[in-house]
What does this fold into?
Amino acid sequence: EPLSFPASRDLRLQSLARGDEGFLLALGYSTQRGYARTHPFVGELRMGEVDVEIAPEELGFAVPLGRITLTECEMVNQFKGTAEHPPEFTRGYGLVFGQSERKAMSMALVDRSLRARELGEELKAPSQDEEFVLSHADNVQATGFVEHLKLPHYVDFQAELILLRQLRREHAEDMAQKDAEMSPVIEPKAAAE
It folds into this structure.
């Protein structure tokens, strides 16, 4: 089912966990470089293995499937407060597959930035726009869209070429008309003079 906006925080976190590390890193970096004005502290950063199991209803007990490595990060940010909320610390959260401290930290930065609306902060940065962030974080979709550009686009190119030729022809006609209007008309002198 496609993502709908506004998305709940749990859906945002799921999407960010699947997001491209480079994209999250750039957005996280932007939050510290003047876009969203944050200077967080790492509250916790850890990595470890967790058991994955399934508990089918018909069995009534859990069946182990294996273990996976996860990296988790909590970033702590200062929050100046609003008329309704006093100043306090807020958190951003990141949980990613594998050993990837940078992605977990980046995810936590972006998560905190996406909480701006919830906290009553003014939305001024790209990292605070959940539709922008979540719609562009998917590496598979982004890669596919960019890669398709190297496929033949003969029909598209031909249509653009026809349009360009028409626009250039119209431009040349307009310029010729302007030149004709600007040129002084010289009356021939009478031969008798």
About this structure: The mean pLDDT is 90. The beta strands are 41-54, 63-79, 88-97. Residues 152-180 form one domain.
